[in-house]
Amino acid sequence: MDTIISIINFVLIAGVIQGFVFNIFTIHITKKRVGWAVIYLNLTVLFISLNNLQAWLIEAGFSTNNFFFRELLVPWYMPIMPVFHAFLVYYLRIENSVKKYIRPAILIFSLEMIIRITLIAFVYYFIPERDNFLITNFTIFEEIFNALFHLLIFYECFKLVFKKKHLFPFILKYDDISWLRVILRLGSYVFILWILAIIIFNITGDRLAYYPLRLGTSVLLYWIGYQGFYRYHQVNDRISLRRSISSSKALRVNDHKLESSRDSSEYNTKHQKDFEKIDSYIIEKQSYLDPNLGLEELANQLDMSPTHLSKIINTYSDYNFSDYINSLRIQQAKKLLNDDSFCRYTIVSIGLECGFNSKSTFYSAFKKFTSQTPSEYRETTC
């Protein structure tokens, strides 16, 4: 058992250090004006780190003989859900549509600190032998109240992500928010561990009940911090890239020349014109940038049968439909990767904005059409 506790304590302090490093790192590399989403994300990580640090110091035996500081347990966990909810609201860009809980959280946190300090002073000066019975009972009440407050906000976050997608259609163009669903599912398990810890501790008085909770919060700390920061910047990159592609960096019809391997005598003039019409339509409408573009959808847009469309593309591009669309996406990606003004954008963001739905499909297609990885191709530019 001692070995398991030591491992959990090690994971706990490692997560704390990682959290503080994350705070320093994100503020340092965000050279422009820091957005509210990044601020609230950093506060979420900071409060989890401070709460875990306080727990680790207590369990590791770093105590003091000073009565005031020994009893001053700061409820760092209290603002975690309110600031995470604020991050969620600003990340989804719905800050003007959804109620936030920052002010109530500040008020509750301040009141809890005032009450605790008052109780500590009262016990110190007026209670015989400084019996901390009042402080202990207040701590129990404080935790139960905060757990209920957190549960309310967690429910609001859950509803927002799973039930109210109509509020943030803009962000859904750039992020499927699957990572947020993972965070909330992990968060639900952490809540269960928290409730169990409160019940078991108040029945048995055994602080070991909190160890699974601390392990869970350490995992959550990593996921929230790095996924949140990575996704935030990826979305901003994609928004900026999409504007550039729409305005001046999109493929033009003349940029994309396909040479068929068939002899020109085999060509049907009408079908050749049909293909040129299809090719021009896809490029001018930037249909290839849609990761969900399918044969039937494009056929409906062009008012022709899927079978006829597929046959023309197969004949006059020497590609099947999927490879033909990917060839356009790769041409677009190469255009951006060749432009040194796009060096600040990640390769993944460029791939996603060129119509690929994942990093792996982008890299695989790029290698297929160029015999290079996107990173190798970009080395000559950036």
Automatic annotation (TrEMBL):
Domain named HTH araC/xylS-type: residues: 276-380
Membrane-crossing segments per the record: 6-27, 34-53, 73-92, 104-124, 144-162, 182-203, 209-229
Key word Secreted present: no
Pfam family, one: HTH_18
Keywords: DNA-binding, Membrane, Transcription, Transcription regulation, Transmembrane, Transmembrane helix
A GO term for molecular function: DNA-binding transcription factor activity
Top-rank taxon: Bacteria
InterPro entries: Homeodomain-like_sf (IPR009057), HTH_AraC (IPR018060), HTH_AraC-typ_CS (IPR018062), Tscrpt_reg_AraC-type_HTH (IPR020449)
Keyword Ubl conjugation carried by entry: no
Protein name: Helix-turn-helix transcriptional regulator
Record organism: Christiangramia crocea
